[in-house]
Structure formats: C-alpha cells, structure tokens
From TrEMBL:
<dbReference type="InterPro" id="IPR050832">
    <property type="entry name" value="Bact_Acetyltransf"/>
</dbReference>
<dbReference type="InterPro" id="IPR000182">
    <property type="entry name" value="GNAT_dom"/>
</dbReference>
<dbReference type="GO" id="GO:0016747">
    <property type="term" value="F:acyltransferase activity, transferring groups other than amino-acyl groups"/>
</dbReference>
<dbReference type="InterPro" id="IPR016181">
    <property type="entry name" value="Acyl_CoA_acyltransferase"/>
</dbReference>
<keyword id="KW-0808">Transferase</keyword>
<dbReference type="Pfam" id="PF00583">
    <property type="entry name" value="Acetyltransf_1"/>
</dbReference>
<feature type="domain" description="N-acetyltransferase">
    <location>
        <begin position="3"/>
        <end position="169"/>
    </location>
</feature>
<keyword id="KW-0012">Acyltransferase</keyword>
<protein>
    <submittedName>
        <fullName>GNAT family N-acetyltransferase</fullName>
    </submittedName>
</protein>
Length: 169
C-alpha cells in the first residue's frame, strides 16, 4: 500500500488520536499511555503545531491517517531556531513501511521553510527503545546526552531518556 504526507488539519484530531492510542498501546510505541491521549492533549498538539511548529500526517490511498509527527518552535528568542517537543506516531499496522522516515523527511523540509528557518531539531527517546534509536541515528540525529531515570513505567521501574539532536544543513 502507498501513502502520502500532508500538513495536519484541525479535522484530523480524531484520526490522530486513534493513531496515537494504537501506538501507545504497543511496547516501544510512544511515551504516553493510551488513556493519556485525551481530546485536550490532541487539541493542544494540533494548536501548537499550527501556531508555530510543524504538524504532518501520513495518509493511505483511502485518506486514512496512518501516522503523525509534530514539533514546535521553542518560544524564546535565543532558541527560536530550534524545533522541540517532537512526537512521531505510526499505526502498528504501518510500522516498517517507511512511514516514520517519510514523516521525518517531510518535517525536515517544512522546518527549513519556516521563517526564520529552523536549524536544529531535538527529541528524546527511551534508552530501551532500540528500534527508535536506530531510526533516529539513521536519519542523522546524534546522541547528546542521557537523562537518568527520566521515565517511570507502571510497574515502578525507571528508564533513562536519550537526548538527541539534528542540525539541518
């Protein structure tokens, strides 16, 4: 099956929530749990991405949202060249088909076109999420640090976060 990438629109809220919930339900999906994907959360990320950031969705041939990525410009002048608070979610049925990579490439292109242009994109990934770390490194992100015990799982165990950054050329 093929897919395409387009900018997020306000009416994408319900399908984006579905993709985020499905991704959150799988190990190594996203940091939020399915019950944390609330209407308020989805409204916030859509609003922030549309206001001063990037929001993109991957849609299949029928127009169904199968993936989403968003990041926002840091609202401090000193850091206004940075996109942060990045989240990418790909529906489990679409993982391994290049959707995540395509969303990132489209995000990089959109970031370069912003005024003023974005120079740096940053994200965090769980240290135990080897697949995500490999993808991010393949895309050009570099490991910049480790945040010890940043995440806490429902069973009480901790996981470090890996801080990563990418400089856009």
């Amino acid at each position: 099956m093929s897919f395409s990438i387009r900018p997020t629109r306000s009416y994408d809220a319900i399908p984006i929530a579905a993709v985020h919930r499905a991704t959150a339900a799988m190990p190594g999906g996203i940091a939020r749990r399915p019950e944390e994907i609330t209407d308020a959360y989805i409204d916030r990320i859509l609003h922030e991405a549309l206001a001063d950031g990037v929001g993109l969705v991957a849609v299949d041939a029928a127009g169904t949202v199968v993936g989403e990525i968003h990041a926002v410009r840091i609202p401090v002048k000193l850091f206004s060249h940075v996109l942060s608070d990045l989240t990418v979610a790909v529906h489990p049925d679409w993982r391994g088909r290049g959707v995540g990579s395509a969303l990132f490439q489209a995000l990089f292109a959109a970031a370069r076109a912003m005024d003023p242009p974005i120079v740096r994109v940053e994200l965090n990934a769980g240290a135990g999420n080897a697949g995500a770390l490999r993808l991010y490194e393949r895309l050009g992100f570099r490991i910049e640090g480790r945040l010890e015990k940043r995440g806490r799982f429902p069973d009480g165990t901790f996981e470090d976060d890996i801080a990563m950054g990418l400089i856009l050329d």
